[in-house]
Amino acid sequence: MDFEVADEAFPVLSDVINCRKQDTHDDFKDFVDLDVDDLPVKHRNEQTLKYIQSLGNRVVRLVVEKPAGAIFGSGVVFRVGAVFIILTNDHVVGCEEDVKNCKIEFFYHDVTRNAVVTSRGQKMLGSSNFQDRCFFTFSPVPPAIEDMAMFDNSELVADITYSKDGSSMKCNGYVNMKDDKWLVMAPLPSPDIGEDCFCEVAFTQKGCDEPQLATFVRILSTEDKGHYIEITDVPEFVKSASLASWVAPWPMGCKEFTPMVIHHPHGVYKKVTVGKMLAVESDSVVDKLYHTAKTCPGSSGGLVITVGGDSSKYFAYPAYICIHCQGDRASEFRGVPTETGNVNVSLFNNS
Ligand SMILES: [Zn+2]
To answer: CA-to-CA distance for 213 and 294, rounded, in angstroms?
Structure first.
């Protein structure tokens, strides 16, 4: 399957010729025109529409100047305490250099670009080539972004301290749940853990000064850009914060859902596509959604909402948003015909 970055941006989809994914782009709807009638039948109500619109407003277009030329992708704004971050794929923004060379375009909602506000990448906070995701800060933060109601992920951020021979190394990591285990993704290469190395993992509840400790179990896996720590004895406020991130206007726990992608295909202004869920699967580091909602080069890093359902019946942890990642033209998936001619993969974002 191919990553979905674009090396050329078009003003409108009708200008795109020879798309490797689609014969036509007729069913890419303008995000600003999204209406109740575009929602899955069971979810045609104003509350769900407003919810999807408010999430979709956080989708941005990314323009990353690379040595071989600019690439175009998508991303989504999240909040950690007072800090706002962009989450996208590692294959869109892969290093500190890419962050510095990244232009972020908020509210690119129509061809006039009248509403567009731009910002620049500032600092990489974490990335993983295994998970194909990265998050980084940007500056300035547009006032309209600061004013948005967003879940604050700060209670899910761990302070990790490695101590060895009287010296210590600190970093922040993001808590995640996988196969009933609590993990922390730490954006640093794994230190050389021996018997004389001590790891402390602490979380701080909002309004409290005193951090609470979880118990370090082991380093689970490691890669060039980071490593995963298994922890236990996770403080109760961390567990409840992870569930408090559930704000979707449908009940938790439905296995059937309709994938809806909000993205910037071919670098054009913001579009919405809808498809069918094909499969939900997990490997050691990521939870994947296979679906048929149409995507194109430029869609990587876009937002996928599982309208009406979530991942809780498949995994230990309910998640209802994904980051879009890869896709291919395909008339069938494991013997079942696909109605859109696309098979795409998005990654569940467990927060
Ligand atoms: Zn296309």
So the answer is: 44
